[in-house]
Amino acid sequence: MSNNGAPLWRPRYRRREVASEGVTLAVYEAGRVGDPDAPVVVLVHGYPDTHRVWDGVAAELEAGHHVVAYDVRGAGASGVPRAAPGAGDASPYRFELLVADLRAVLDAVAGDRPVHLVGHDWGSIQGWEAVTCGDLDGRLRSYTTISGPCLDHIGHWMRERRRRPGAYPALARQALKSWYIGFFRLKAVSDLAWRAGVVPRVVTVMRGREGVPAEPPVRTADGLHGMRLYRANMSRTRYPRDRYATIPVQALVPVRDAYVSPALLDDLPRWAPGLRRHDLDAGHWVPLTAPGLVAGRIAEFVADVGEGAPGDQASGNPPSRA
Fold first, then answer.
1. DSSP 54
2. Which residues contact 65 (CB under 8 A, 6 or more apart)?
3. Global confidence as pTM
4. Which residues of 86-120 are buried (b: 16+ CB within 10 A; e: fewer)?
5. In Å, what is the CA distance from 14 to each residue of 10, 32, 50, 70, 174?
6. DSSP assigned state of 242
7. Alpha-carbon distance 269 to 276, whole Å?
8. In this structure, what DSSP letter does residue 236 have?
9. Is the CB of residue 59 less than 8 Å from the CB of residue 13?
10. pLDDT (tens digit, 9 = 90+) per residue, 248-271?
11. Residue 16, Cβ neighbours under 10 Å: how many?
12. Where exactly are the structural domains of the chain?
């Protein structure tokens, strides 16, 4: 697999379509599909990516796992949801619908078997919702989060640091990293910037600085649709709830992430007891720049957690650094 602009090695995907809440999801399976002895690993991509962001990771995992990736609603080959009249165009991207999509995928690929969930960027943000909302209790065996904190946890993190004058620099650093969020919520301006090619060029430059391969490319349609994730859900940070994980959680933390400060994860042991944390010398798109490293951490965690009933190891494993 190359980090110098050449296409990543792709796994031998089998594609299927899964219906969920008014959309058809494109679901891709590889590896030991249907093998009852193979752990099921479900990979959820972020913004403005598609399932292709996982190509290298999936290729590394397929020999020993049933690997599943899918294009989230509005991205890649999946359908674009329509809003009900008067509901606003962001309404079909609410968390509850994203969790319903994940449930539909699990029903199709794993039946009643619990799966190991992995999320990157917005895939990780929606993964936190699935892990903590209770709707998928018993369906998830472990969770690996990459560059996508829980929005409720962020809300608590910001509130607590506003009360500490010494923490203002950390708040300022994260605010600088998050500049784009306010821009994406300005619908007319940000939509025009995507259609004019300005944002795709900026994203390509930012990815290039990290050594991201030329494949997969940035797609304008995915950028336009995916901005609705921000418009539908970011208000959660203003009214955060207490959201606890009851399954083992692993955090892979790229220390050179241009968008998510590693400090945002400092309080995570409060919400995920027994958290296993690995700080990685990498940037935001680590699934593309270091797929072998990411896959290795996932495989190790999956093996350590095992295939018992969900909740058997709810406290996870001791924190670590690597």
1. G
2. 31, 32, 38, 39, 40, 41, 299, 302
3. 0.91
4. eeeebbbbbbebbbbbbbbbbebbeeeebbbbbbb
5. 12, 11, 16, 11, 39
6. -
7. 9
8. G
9. no
10. 999 999 999 999 999 999 999 999
11. 15
12. 14-305
